[in-house]
Amino acid sequence: MLHTLFAAAALLIGACSGSDDSTPAAGGELAFSPETLMLTDEASVQTVAVEATADWGVSSDDTSWCRVAPSGGTAGTSTVKVTIDANKTGDSRSANLVFRIGSDKKFLPVSQHYKVEAVEIADPAFRAYLLENFDTDGDGVLSTKEAAAVTRIEAAGRGIRSMAELSTAFKHLVYLDCSNNELTDLDLSGLTRLTYLDCSGNRLTEIDIQSLPGLRTFDATDNPELEKIYVWTGFAAPAAGFSKPEGARYVEPEIPTPVGYRLVWADEFNASGESLPDTSKWWYETGDGGWGNHELQDYVSGGQYQGEKLALISNGTLKIIAKKIAGKVRSIRMNTVESWTYGYFEARLKLCTGKGTWPAFWMMPKNFKTWPGDGEIDIMEEVGYHPNYVSSSIHCNAYNHPKGTQKTHEFLLSTAQTEFHTYAVEWTADYLRFIFDGEEHLRFANDGKGNYDTWPFFNPFYLKLNLAWGGDWGGAEGIDETALPATYEVDYVRVFKKNE
User: How far apart, in whole angstroms, are the C-alpha atoms of residue 365 and residue 178?
Assistant: First the structure.
């Protein structure tokens, strides 16, 4: 075996160099088999036989998908294992195993094909149009790679009855002309880049364009049964470029939604009669250990204590109540079961009164380990001794109150304790933007350095509502138990996610 491999390697070297010189390279001789690896798209482990006359090493020049072990060996016969990941990139790829013996190198080329993933198109007429225009390799299949490259579809008058695959397979579309077909439904929810849409001359009864705030041209005429066109909050039809049948009307979302977002979670607290919060949406943190701030209240479970409801839903709002029961102030700290990474988070709140109260609407990381390292997002806080001064803050290792480096902003909202106001944060990969009654009052930007100490805000966080009593801030000027029971009122809590 040793002689055979070396002889084959010598012939290969001679053929490549145009020389008959088969003098062994300095440091020893090395050969391997097979001399190339040509692989399918599937994950696999390949074995390469190695013959060497001295110590040697081997590595892969692309360990992201092609890895080799062990990293070397000694003189004699041995093998290495090459671990190949499945190729889901949509392109062929290549790497090299680099063998070293002495000062010499030898390369074993590795190539891997990719799997053609077909986009299944149900409507024959739509499928025929797509293959005619976008089957770039002529294999009779529209692949996911080919579909992802499509930015314009001009399929007027093709007898198409369904384009059900638009939102999932053609997310890069900016131009869509599907006029004069036989469409009764058109799902555009995933086409957030669309700027031109002509769906005239079909049989649509309604159409939803609320995820398309970039739309500049829209024609839905000649759809005789079209009644509703769902649009975004604050929509105003442009003076030119938008056309619809006379009988169709634009319909904004029932729940006001930030432009470019969609509602994904909400609690409107609209249950009839009197009830407790929905435990499929909320869970209770309990205890009276001060919570790191020397707070005085005892947070209780189940929304009530000794039969008295302290998280009461009635008349369309949630009342979080702090009340002295059995010699101690009992209150509520409730958290969402779900958590989210990025989004627009909003609540409509009326704050309580009295020295000692400390209502809050805030967020903490789902996988919390350390404070302040894992981050904290305070959407709204207020303390009763400083009435109607509402604030927002963020905490992380670099910026926090113990260090005096916190990023926070407080201002007077004169009716915060007597009227409902909206408090929100827009959280993206680039910034946290705090908004009260639709007006931004604090922005904290990601510095882009990938430093967890300054930006731990890329993990899932959950929402929190609580009413504390006393503590380092809430009780900084003392407490007044004549303010009890104190009620913190919540009209709704809503979560919106950005349209992808």
Answer: 45
